[in-house]
Every structure is written in structure tokens, then in C-alpha cells.
Amino acid sequence: MKTIKQTEYASADVSQLEEKQNGMPENKGAERAFTELERGVYAALETYSNVHRGSGHNSLVSSQLYEHARGVVLEYMGLNKDRYIVIFCSPKRTSELISLLKPGSYQTITSREIGLPLGITAVAVEKKALPKGSPTECGGGTARLVAAGWIIWNTGPDKFEAGTPAIVNVIAFSKAMLLLKRYGKDIFKKLQGTDLGITELLYKDELEQYSGVELMEQLRKTLIGLGMIVPTLEGEKPFVNLDNSASTPTFQPIWNTFRQALRLPERRKQDVVREVKAICSEILGAPLDKYDIIFTKNTTESINLVSESLGRSNDRDTEPAVLISLLEHSSNDLPWRMASKKSLVRLPVNAEGFVDLVELENHLREYNQDHKHGKKRIKVVAISGASNVLGTCNDIDKISPIVHKYGARLLVDGAQVVAHRKVEMEKDDIDYMAFSAHKVYAPFGTGVLVSKKGLLNYKPDEMRQICTSGEENIGGVASLGKALVILRRIGFDVIHEEEQKLTKMALDGLSKIPNIRIFGITDQNSGSFDKKIGVIVFETKDILHNKLAEEMFQKGGIGVRYGCHCSHLLIKHLLDISPVLEQVQRVVLTVSPKTQLPGVVRVSLGVENTKEDIEILIQVLNKLTSDAKRKPNGEQKKALAQAETDFQKELEEFAQTAIHKVYAYAE
């Protein structure tokens, strides 16, 4: 990857000296630095997507921005990039990581040290000192391939950055480091606070007079990155984001809350935390007198906290087991299997993606009533609220009574459900729920764990550390609150209805394209269809999943996700991967880590999507599948190869322009 020339940063000390000589007041310099920081972060949001996990222009740019941030940190710390690698952690996870490292093999720097409440710690570790074996925190992104009985872990920093990282906060952190070199190392500590009231910060905005469908339509106009024009093989086109299950973009009112929260005085921050907890409590139907609401870095960290808590059980008469379904994302699978002395019980799903309630009760009866498995007892049933692959929403209201009938507790992975459907934790008797702000249009590094009071097995000082770690990212907490307020004003019934219209439209179009196979619920007249969010996965007979996703953005400007979607067991089940072939994959991936394994393409919808997006999707897929049947001659192959070469240059220029816009100084 090309990087911005060093000379663009080399003037930092000179500029700082000139400003001191010119007598610039400290507060004026701080204001200028913060304005420059805001400009860079806003530019990053214009092309925001999840990193390393999708196709399309936005995923490419965000990935390069995120990786570029590692280099900026090393440069700021004066460390050799050939010797060190940077791992970005939450404050809590930092202590766990460095406990595995030898003294002298690492250095750390925190966002708090540079004067910004971003909740980020950068740990620069000697590459040769990276811990071997299993990571202390596991989930999405930490593994390259997962089977029921084994795991091939990722390498490098990905292994230690479980779940979706605080991408935007990390970019802000690294941008701030460049500004420290320009304006002085304490410049953000000199920034004057802005003491906004809670009402103004979380409830007031330019759209407050709207609600329902009208609010959704007006909100779309404030999408950061709206109308982004991207290069394709067929000329410039507007970018179409159909990858909302990986991560969601944000909107102007939510961004305003984030940036304003960074300037709040310390005395105001706990007021924000309390108010956002109240918002979460109301949205999730989890009364604060019965539930604890804890802010974390993402869904993965939240589920790891529950898993670790279960592992601390003092019950010596039984051995804890955990029941999960075949639907589960790695973040609701790996934490349970990695904790010591626990057994994992897997519940199958039907072709549409629903668990069998009879089978669920049979398992619970065998373990917890009939004691057919010795001392093992199912202590937790961990189920996704909505599948990130099939979009199916299991009947939690029916699952919960069965779980509690046999003395187990229910955890719901709410990562894919909170932005789409109304959640009722108390009504459905849910013991734990985890979700992430980056799935609800606030991609600023905050996760949430909601737990019935008294269920988490941590000492008071440990709980304080957990809470302090998540609450340090006050911008992330505040923007989550703002996003939930806006979703509530739209109405979850409205969101569901609009999403269903687009899902039906997409299924209609896809069903008419030859050789496309759609997985999960396809019958729109089925009683199950109302239990589906806007997630559709498919494959084609003529084009491999990775190639199809690549061509969707190369020729149509569409960003999607392809592969196993961190749900390896479910994808292998859908594609009928036999145990023998699974072992072959294990060998192949060990020998050749970049080998592309079988997978599917996923389209996932958000509140910013419209029928025009679906029309473009169907048009592009029709053309791609039609073109796949044609066999180009020699001259045509040569022309296509040259066109792709030229496009790659355009794409690289697009990415470098976007990176420069974030990291370079404004003139």
C-alpha cells in the first residue's frame, strides 16, 4: 500500500515553532487542532465500512486507513515498523494482553494520555514476542477457519483484536498524533470544554420535528458519504452500500453528538452515561432496577465477559455446559468453547434457520433433569437474536420459558436485531443481551452488555475496571444514545415494514435470475417471513462467491460481504461441506493461508437503503450472470485484462485520495 509521503508530516515541528513565535494563544491553537481532527474523522466517515471483511470501495479505504493508523502510532512512538506491530485495545483488554508479554517487549500509549476520551490503547509489541496459542479474548476476526472441534487462529494483530475494532476512534487517535507533532504534545489537553446539557446533546437536532417514515426519509439525506462517486470498470457510479450487517454508516445528527461529546467537561460525562443507560433500558425493555447496563468495546467483548463470569463458578458439584445453535457468529461460539472446563452443546437449525424447540427441550432435559451426561449441566443457552447469515429471528419468547424451566440462563446475541426490531428483555425473561453501536449507525467503538442484576461473577474492583473501560469512550456512548433515540422516533414497526418491502423486492428480483441459489426464507407468503430481517445470502453456479462480490463493486459500485461471515459452521452446513472436505480445507489453509474457501455472497439492508439500491443490485447481477455465460476470445481477454489493470490504478488512486483527505493537513 502506498503511504502519504513523509514530507507531508515533516513540517510539524516547524509549524509549531512558527505558531509560538507568532504568539498564537493556546486556546486558539487547540481549537484549530480540534477542527482539523474533526475534518479528518468526517472524511473517514464518508467512506466508512468494516475492515478486512467486505468487498467494495468503502471496505478497501477503511481497511487501508485502519492499517495506516498502526504505522502512524509506531512513527509517533519512534519504533521500527519492521520490529514492532501495533494492537489496538480497550483499556480493560490492554491489561490482559500485556500480562502475556515479557517486560521490555512492548510499549503503550492511550488516547487519554493525549487528551482525548476515545477509549483506545495502542500496544506496540515486538513481533517475535506476540503470544502463541489461543488469545485471551476471542470472537469475530480472531480465527481464519473454525470447525466444531478445532480452530485455526488468525495471525498478527487480528488475533488480538476480537470483534469489530473501534475503527473510527483508532483513525481519530492516529490523526490526533499527527496534530500533536504540529501543535504541541498537550494541545488537546488545552481544549476548552463545551458544557452541553443532556437534552441538547442527545435529543435536539435539525430533524426533531419529524417521525416515522418521514424521519427515515429526511435522515437519509444526512447520510455521511451520501452520493459518493466511485470508479468502476464501466465509468464512475454512485456507491451502493449493501453491507449493513458488517457495520453501519452514520448520519449527521449522530456524528454531531459524537464530536460534541468529546468536548464535554468531566463533570458532565457521568450524566451522559446515566442518560444513555436509561435510553438503552427503555429501548430494550430492561428496567434499571432489574438489569445492569454495562458499556464495552463491542458485542464480542460483552459475550466474553459473560463467558468469563461463568468460568468463575464455585459450584464443584456440577460442570457447566453451554448450548448454542448452529446459527451462531464466532463471537457467540468461540468465547464459550475457549473458557476452561466447559462443554459446548450444539443445536441444529432447519433449512430456514430456525431452531427446533423440541430438540432444545430434549437437550436441556437430558443434561439438567435426567443427568445423562454425568456432572455436566447446561448453565447458559446462547442464541442469536437474528442470524447474520440467514436473517432469521428465532422466537425468543418461546425459547426463554423452556430455558428457564430447566434452570439455565438465556443470553441473546443482539448484534443483528437491535437496529431492526423491538426488543423486550423483561417481558421475554432474557438474562443477558449483547450488541454493538456500530450495528445501529453509531460506529464509534461502543458495545453494550445488559445483564440481570447479580448474575455477573466479578469482584467490585473488577466491575469498576470493566465499567470505567467502556465509559472512557464517552463519544461512543453518547452517539449510541443518539442513534437509539432516532431509531425510536422512526419506530421499530416502521423500520421493519420498510425493510420487509425492500427484502421482498430483492427476493423477487433475485429469484428471476438464472443459476442463483438463495438460502433461507424465500417464500414471502410464509408465516416465517415476518421473522426475517433484511439479510439475503446466495451463490451462483457460474461465478465463485469472492469473484462475484468483486465484480459487483468493480462493475456496479456495490459493496457487499462474501465468504463465511464469521459463521463457519452454518456456511459449511448450507453448502453441504462434508467432514472429509472440512479436513481437506484445514490442511489446505494451513499450507496456503490465502486460499479462498467456499462461501456465499450477502446483501444486508439498513435504514439508508432505498428501492433504487435494490434496482441497481438486480440490474448488476443480471448483467454479471449473463456475461458469465459468454466465452471471450483472445482479443477480448486481452482487452478485459487491460481494463482491469487500468481499473486497479483508478481504485488505488481513489483509496489514496481518501486516505490523504483524512491524514493530510488542510491548507
Automatic annotation (TrEMBL):
The keyword Ligase does not apply. Residues 117-215, 268-617 form the Aminotransferase class V domain. GO terms for molecular function: transaminase activity. Residues 1-29 are annotated as: Disordered. Keywords: Aminotransferase, Pyridoxal phosphate, Transferase. Its cofactor is pyridoxal 5'-phosphate. Gene3D superfamilies: Aspartate Aminotransferase, domain 1, Type I PLP-dependent aspartate aminotransferase-like (Major domain). SUPFAM superfamilies: PLP-dependent transferases. The keyword Transferase applies. It catalyses: (sulfur carrier)-H + L-cysteine = (sulfur carrier)-SH + L-alanine. PANTHER family: CYSTEINE DESULFURASE, CYSTEINE DESULFURASE 1, CHLOROPLASTIC. Belongs to the class-V pyridoxal-phosphate-dependent aminotransferase family. Csd subfamily. This is Aminotransferase class V-fold PLP-dependent enzyme. It comes from Fulvivirga kasyanovii.
